[in-house]
Amino acid sequence: MFTGIIQAVGHIARIEPRAGDLRLRIDVGALDLTGVVPGDSIAVSGVCLTAIELDARQFAADVSRETLACSTLGVLREGAAVNLEKALRVGDALGGHLVAGHVDGVGHVRDVHADARSQRWRFSAPAALARYIASKGSVCIDGVSLTVNEVDGTDFGVNLIPHTLEHTCFGQRAAGDAVNLEVDLLARYVERMLGAQA
C-alpha cells in the first residue's frame, strides 16, 4: 500500500525489452533506498512495481504485458521523469489516502489554468472509471493523491498547489498528456458489495 505522497522524482534510466514485456531500470533521484531489499514494492508514477535489483542510485523492475496495457509505462521513453514512493510500513504517516498502486486505466490532461498561486487541472477519464470519481472524493493521478474539485461527465478537475507542482512530475505535464489513474478503493468495494446484494 501507498499514500499518494510523492517522495522523489526519478527517471527511466534504461528500458530493456524481455520476450514481450519490459524490464525498467529507474534512477531514483533523491529517494532514499536504505532498508529497501529485492522483493519490496515501489510505486512508479502510481504503478506498484517489485524491485528485483537495486543499489543506492537505481532499481530494476519487470513490467508485465497487463501493466503495460493498463498504464503509461509502455509509452515512456528513456529519460522520462517518474514519481516515486516507497511502500507504507507499519507506523508510517498516512498523509494522502490509501493507494494500492494498481492503476485502473489511463486518462488525459484536458487543460490547465492558473488559479492564484495554484493551478486548476482538468482531466478526462475512461467512461468505465468516471463513475467512481466523486466531487470531494480522492483520486490518484500518476501516483499523486488528489482531491476532486468537480465532476462533469467523464471530466473532472483538481487543484494543484505550488508544492505539488515543484515536487512531482506535474510541472512537466501539459494538455493532451496521458496519466495513470487509480480510483478510490472504497468506491470499488462499495460497488462490489452492493452488486452482491442485488
What can be said about this structure in brief?
15% of the residues lie in helices and 42% in strands.
Our Rg estimate from Cα atoms comes to 17 Å
What top-tier CATH class of the largest domain fits best? Answer: Mainly Beta
Biggest sheet overview: 7 strands, antiparallel
Instruction: Report the structural category.
Output: mainly beta
Describe the strand arrangement of the main beta sheet, using strand numbers.
4-3-7-1-2-6-5
CATH architecture of the largest domain: Beta Barrel
| Number of helices, where a helix is a run of at least 4 consecutive DSSP H or I residues | 4
What distance lies between the first and last C-alpha atoms, to the nearest angstrom?
30 Å
Q: Name the overall outline.
A: globular
The count of β-strands is: 13
Q: Which segments are poorly predicted (pLDDT under 50) over 5 or more consecutive residues?
A: none
Please write the string of helix (H) and strand (E) elements: EEEEEEHEEEHEEEHEH
Mean pLDDT: 94
Strand content: 35-45%
What percentage of residues falls in helices of 4 or more residues?
Answer: 10-25%
* Total of domains: 2
Q: Tell me the CATH topology of the largest domain.
A: Elongation Factor Tu (Ef-tu), domain 3
Function: Catalyzes the dismutation of two molecules of 6,7-dimethyl-8-ribityllumazine, resulting in the formation of riboflavin and 5-amino-6-(D-ribitylamino)uracil.
Enzyme class: transferase
Subunit structure: Homotrimer.
GO molecular function: riboflavin synthase activity
Structural summary, described in words:
By secondary structure, this protein is mainly beta. Helices cover 15% and strands 42% of the residues. The protein folds into two domains: 8-86, Elongation Factor Tu (Ef-tu), domain 3 (Beta Barrel), CATH 2.40.30; 105-197, Beta Barrel (Elongation Factor Tu (Ef-tu), domain 3). It is built from four helices and 13 strands. The strands form two sheets. It has a seven-stranded antiparallel sheet. Strands 8-9-12-11-10-13 form a six-stranded antiparallel barrel. The protein is globular. The relative contact order is 0.19. The model has no long low-confidence stretch (mean pLDDT 94). Its EC number is 2.5.1.9.
